Amino acid sequence: MNYPEESTAADQVRDLTAAHAPTILLERLADKLGTRASVAAVYGEPISGEGVTVIPVARVGFGFGGGSGREIRSDKTGEGGGGGGGVGSWPLGFIEIRDGTATYKPIRRHWTDFIVPLSALAVALAPKIIRTRRKRRT
């Protein structure tokens, strides 16, 4: 015997659960990764030796995404879902403590110190170079 009220209520609960599945998944991921996020993730454990203490510094980023779907037709029923998250960490530099004085020292990428200014110069001079070449042709 089928009871329309019961099957309708069950369908409503199923629809509600499917609609909230991505939210529930993202909340669980955020909770798990959030408990691991701490000052130590950005500022590493201090390392001491010969009167100098070094504290590593990094940039840490979190990202999350999720989705869900449900299509009901008279002949087929479809469902779907998905989610994920990720964490990335990039070294930025370190804090050096020597004789009671703390100094931040960035980790420099020498190629960017050269390439970025050179590219900016090329972009700034490009219109002038193009005009000069056009004048030479005529």
Q: Give the termini distance in whole angstroms.
A: 93 Å
Low-confidence runs (pLDDT<50, min 5 residues)? Answer: 1-7
Compressed to H and E, one letter per element, the order equals HHEEEEH
Instruction: Tally the beta strands.
Output: 4
Largest sheet: 4 strands, antiparallel
> Helices and strands: which structural class?
alpha+beta
> What does the radius of gyration come to?
29 Å
Strand order of the largest sheet: 1-2-3-4
Mean pLDDT: 76
3D shape: flat
Supply database-style keywords.
disordered N terminus, 2 domains, alpha+beta, 138 residues, 47% helix, 4-stranded antiparallel β-sheet
Task: Tell me what you see in this structure.
This protein is of the alpha+beta class and 138 residues long. It has 2 domains: 4-107, no CATH class; 108-138, no CATH class. Helices cover 47% and strands 38% of the residues. The protein has 3 helices and 4 strands. It has a 4-stranded antiparallel sheet with strand order 1-2-3-4. It is flat, with a radius of gyration of 29 Å. The N and C termini lie far apart (93 Å). 1% of the residues are buried. The model is unreliable at 1-7 (pLDDT under 50).
